[in-house]
Amino acid sequence: MDVIDAQMVGTLSSSDFDAEVAAIRSAILNDVNELGETALFIAADKGHLDVVQDILFYSSTEGISLKNDLGFDAFHIAASRGHLCMY
Q: Residue 31 carries which DSSP code?
């Protein structure tokens, strides 16, 4: 609770605040649902390229390479749905 209070009144340094935001973002992005899928899986499955790009920017290597319960990663899912992006 002290950390939240410090953030609210601005006594937490900006680097500490940035580190906390990064930790929260990582926890959210790498959270796994009951099928073993993360936000990256869902965005890739639905073909939301802009969301996938944002998630990739903040994801860990482990989060990117995570496989679901069927052994597929998010890129397998995207490709299987025909969501291919050629640069």
A: -
Question: For the chain, what is the domain count?
Answer: 1
Exposure of 1 by Cβ count < 10 A (0-12 exposed, 13-18 middle, 19+ buried)? exposed
* pLDDT tens, residue order, the chain (87 aa): 566 656 555 656 778 888 888 888 888 888 889 988 899 999 999 999 899 999 998 888 888 889 988 899 999 988 898 887 655
Q: What is the largest CA-CA distance in the chain?
A: 49
Specify the CATH number for the domain of residue 73: 1.25.40.20
Distance of alpha carbon 73 from alpha carbon 37, whole angstroms: 9
Q: In terms of residue numbers, what domain contains 39? A: 2-80
Q: What is the pTM of this model?
A: 0.71
